[in-house]
Amino acid sequence: MRSADPRRRPLFVFLVTSPFGYRGGYERFVRDEASQLTAEGFDVAMYCPPVWLVRAIYSLFGDDRFHGRGRTPELGDALRRIPLVEVTGDALVYAKNDVLDLAIAATLLRGKHVIVGFHTALNTPGRGHWRRLRQLLYSGRVYRWLLSGRSRWYHALDSDVASWVSGQLGSERVFTVGNSMRRIAAGAVQRRSYDFGFLGRLTVQKGIDLFLGAVGSLPAGAVKGLRMAVAGEGEYSGLVKQCRAVEWLGYVDDPLQFLASCKWLVVPSRWEQQPYVLIEAGAVGTPCIVPRGSPLVRHQPDRRFQCELSIEGLRQSMLEAIAVGGDEYAAMVRRCHSTYLLGVRDQARRPTFSSVVRRLLLEG
Question: How confident is the model at residue 360 (pLDDT cuts 50, 70, 90)?
């Protein structure tokens, strides 16, 4: 969006609706891309709706995201907060495709130029009254109406989502750029303190119930001497705290450090697109256990650690992982990190998020 005043830098605004300390993949995406855009000379800011409004909307829809602390997400010094009045007509706003984020954008940011980023998976299963309502919204006309608009562009993390957007909305204003792999500064891998780790929101979506079930079904002899940790908060926090076999850490300030401390990362998600956690795990050479048949298998080519999405399937893969010896494990770490480096080199040949934003800001 060209500014009316040529002396003024174009303003790029991230809409962030998680002001209660939650730092998930979207928040890490915002942190990384904001830093890059700022380094390239753009004026970048964050708009957070009033806390009471976000709390009311998410409570209405039964969202379990905001357990625990009550402070604004820490997204780095490069990203300042601005009031709504400063989100002027020539600003470009980035909003996540979550139905609640889009509702806030449609209400408070009406008439603004918006990039809708598809970070929330569309195949969300309904569990409970309010989750079924959200599922109905995602599949209905209301959601398509929230997505549509003449002043909209769409950011897809992969080609499948881009095809869905083009087909459902009939829009050619779609660009595909995956989560950045290049700005992860992976230091020396520290001693693997934990045998198994889980990092993410403690919800049905992330499969924490499957992880706890698998841990509980491991033979006593296999569990003896193991150290397992869960980093995150959510609706299952209480059950995690009650599980004596795992150490609950809550939200961790440095996900990379936590991942580097885990021998294995367990990712039993029921639905995902392109989670940051697997990119970060590759950066520090932490092998993963992922669901068979999901897009996540590209991060784990060894079928022994592509589990059936069930407690028994996860249990079997965890037992396979326990049996992996030192030399074989060291080779897996090297292969895991090499896959990450290949992804970095492949991504370097493709358009970046900041290059697309630069074109939209300067050319319109």
Answer: confident
Where residue 124 falls (left for φ over 0; alpha for ψ -120 to 50; beta otherwise) is: beta
Distance of CA 222 to the CA centre of its chain: 32
- Name the helix (H) or strand (E) containing 299: none
* DSSP conformational letter for 319: H
- pLDDT for residue 295 is more than 70: yes
Pairing of strands 80-81, 262-266: unpaired
pLDDT of residue 231: 94
Closest CA to 249 of 260, 237, 265, 239: 237
What's the average model confidence in pLDDT over 245-261?
89
The conformational region for residue 285 under phi > 0 = left, psi -120 to 50 = alpha, else beta, is left
Buried (b) or exposed (e) across 338-353, using 16+ Cβ within 10 A?
Answer: ebbeebbeebeeeebb
**DSSP at 68:** S
Mean predicted confidence (pLDDT) in 264-268: 95
Q: CB–CB of 343/182 below 8 Å?
A: no
CA trace torsion 121, 122, 127, 132 (10° rounding): 140
Asked if 43 and 361 count as a contact pair (C-beta separation under 8 A), the reply is: no
- Model pLDDT, residue 60: 66
Please tell me the distance from the alpha carbon of residue 263 to that of residue 282, in angstroms, as a whole number. 12
Instruction: Return the bridge partners of 153, or none.
Output: 115
Q: With 50 as the cut, is the pLDDT of residue 313 above it?
A: yes
Instruction: Record the pTM.
Output: 0.81
Give the pair of three-digit tokens for residue 95.
């909003």
Check the CA dihedral 279-192-190-201 and report its sign: positive
Please name the residues in contact with 103: beta carbons below 8 A apart, sequence gap of 6 or more: 57, 146
DSSP state of 111: T
Burial class (CB in 10 A: 0-12, 13-18, 19+), 279: buried
